[in-house]
Amino acid sequence: MKTRDLALVAAFTALAVASDFALTDLPNVKLVDPIVFAVAFVFGLEMGVYVGVLSEVIWGTLSPFGFGGYIIPFLVAGEVLYALAGWAASRFWGGEGSRVSTRNIYLGAILALCAFLWDFETNAGTALLLYWPAMTLQNLLRTEFLGITFMVNHELADLVTGTVLVPLIIFYASRFARPPVLARET
């Protein structure tokens, strides 16, 4: 990784973590998801994964809600999902960035789907941690059901930020990307 790439990872990670702190009062509204998606879209999967992993490890450790502990690997895995989705979307749309496009709705829908999978996966991880070794399907479903209000909030927030914020991040971050990175992975 070159110094420039390291600086970009550090800057986007700082932005993601700072936004998590700024939005603490809004449950499950966070900008780390669209940031990780957009970074992977513009700069590639590796950079997106770095930003996602670092952001979740830092947030899980320093969160005002307390140390994340054993749930942190599940949070990190969820952010890797956003990086994979951003990278795949760039492959489908050729890495092009536009501030206003009908594609923005699709980006929002992809982020909402990622939020659903992230929430399902982290709730399953929570159930696993709570009920191990007596984990049952009933315990899993109970944990998933109890998380519905947070899930809906997270999915709606990602739908909106994916539709509005992601295209802007992609458009402006593309100025820092080297053209070969946008066209194909090197």
Instruction: Sum up the overall morphology in one term.
Output: globular
Query: What CATH architecture would you give?
Result: Orthogonal Bundle
Please give the share of residues in helix: over 70%
Q: Which residue ranges are poorly predicted, with pLDDT under 50 across at least 5 consecutive positions?
A: 180-186
Main β sheet profile: none
What Rg is obtained from the alpha carbons, in whole angstroms? Answer: 16 Å
Average pLDDT works out at 88
CATH top level is Mainly Alpha
Strand runs, count: 0
| Helix and strand sequence | HHHHHHHH
What structural class do helix, strand and pairing data support? mainly alpha
Number of helices: 8
Report the span from N to C terminus: 12 Å
Strand content is under 5%
Architecture blueprint of SSEs:
Layout: H1 3-22, H2 32-43, H3 45-62, H4 72-93, H5 103-131, H6 137-146, H7 148-173, H8 179-183
Description:
- With 186 residues, the protein is mostly helical.
- The chain has a single domain (3-179), classed as Orthogonal Bundle (Arp2/3 complex 21 kDa subunit ARPC3).
- 76% of the residues lie in helices and 0% in strands.
- The chain is built from eight helices and no strands.
- The two termini are 12 Å apart.
- Mean pLDDT is 88; it is low at 180-186.
